[in-house]
Specification:
Septin spn3, elongated, GTP binding, three-stranded antiparallel β-sheet, G_SEPTIN_dom, GTP-binding, alpha/beta, P-loop_NTPase
């Protein structure tokens, strides 16, 4: 899901991420026409992407939220987005309750929300704080600065610093690329620490291909120079794309299912039992949510250890079976050797008797 006020670059980012036109700019990024339709509109679209030269494909559903942030009072927009996220959980809960499951059932849960922050050069606005706090109990929230090329390097660095200070101050439990120094390998710790250090990600998108040094690259042309989308010195686009589609895809899905969905499921079942109506504040303690990744990592490690034990036992069984087979073969070979020796001895005796 991509969410943010009109003009923050959501549409261009999605099209750049997918390498083709998936969203129409007039629906998402045209601030001049934002007044035509009031309220947020939830617009999911599914695309097939080829991730590498080997032909690995992924079915990616993009959920756009045009109209968010265009009103003075955005309470209804908050409700629309939270409602959409919860309906996907309700569909899973209903399917799990069926005696006979639907083999064609499609899981439409949203695994990550990219929240596009307006590039003001300052910290978070009240709207940003409220939106991320409302949605974080239902989805992994990753903050990004849209159209980051509108800021100077110094302004961008200061803005990132202020935004992360606000996130910490208001205890907003964003997805922070969790790692455990004691449990995770060195490469994982280094990669996640680097990604965490880039937050909020500075996003630059472009629908244009510009030739630079004989190569066509996605970039934005300005009178003062060129901003390359995939140049790490100009944008964090490569880092966020790799995290979303490769390195952290499984982790985002696991947290969604094992923690966010299970928390919602518990709330829902508790409500159905006691008839209570939980409030948004009762859904999750921010401190609990902040430690979700560590607990999930521990659970994941436990499952991996169990798998390793199963593999070890299987290997031991196979080794024992192979040893038995080898012993049987050795026994057969000894019998053959003994028989051949007896036959050779008998032949020698027959020859000797013949000579006599």
């Amino acid at each position: 899901m991509v969410c943010g006020a009109s003009g923050t670059g959501r549409t261009t980012f999605v099209n750049t991420l997918c390498g083709k036109k998936v969203l129409e700019g007039k629906d998402a990024d045209d601030a001049a026409n934002a007044h035509i339709e009031e309220g947020v509109r939830i617009k999911p679209v599914t695309v097939e992407l080829e991730l590498d030269d080997e032909g690995t494909r992924i079915s990616l559903t993009i959920v756009d939220t045009p109209g968010f942030g265009d009103q003075i009072d955005n309470e209804a927009s908050f409700g629309e987005i939270v409602g959409y996220l919860e309906r996907q959980y309700d569909d899973i809960l209903a399917e799990e309750s069926r005696i006979k499951r639907n083999p064609r059932f499609r899981d439409n849960r949203v695994h990550v929300l990219l929240y596009f922050i307006t590039p003001t050069g300052h910290g978070l606005r009240e709207l940003d704080i409220e939106l991320m706090k409302r949605l974080s109990p239902r989805v992994n929230v990753i903050p990004v600065i849209g159209k980051a090329d509108s800021l100077t390097p110094a302004e961008l660095a200061e803005s990132k610093k202020l935004i992360m200070e606000d996130i910490e101050h208001y205890r907003i439990p964003v997805y922070n690329f969790p790692y455990d120094i004691e449990e995770d390998d060195e490469d994982t710790v280094e990669e996640n620490a680097e990604l965490r250090g880039l937050m909020p990600f500075a996003i630059v998108g472009s629908d244009e291909l510009i030739e630079i040094d004989g190569k066509k690259v996605r970039a934005r042309q300005y009178p003062w120079g060129v901003v390359e989308v995939e140049n790490p010195r100009h944008s964090d686009f490569l880092a966020i794309r790799s995290a979303l589609l490769h390195s952290h895809l499984a982790d985002l899905k696991e947290i969604t299912h094992d923690f966010l969905y299970e928390n919602y499921r518990t709330e829902k079942l508790s409500k159905s039992v006691d008839g209570a109506t939980p409030t948004q504040d009762s859904s999750m303690n921010p401190e609990d949510l902040a430690s979700q990744s560590v607990r999930l990592k521990e659970e994941q490690l436990r499952r991996e250890e169990e798998k390793l034990r199963e593999i070890e036992l299987k290997v031991q069984r196979e080794i024992a079976e192979k040893r038995q087979e080898l012993l049987a073969r050795e026994s057969q070979l000894r019998e053959i050797e003994a028989r051949m020796a007896r036959e050779a001895s008998q032949s020698q005796v027959d020859v000797t008797n013949g000579d006599a």
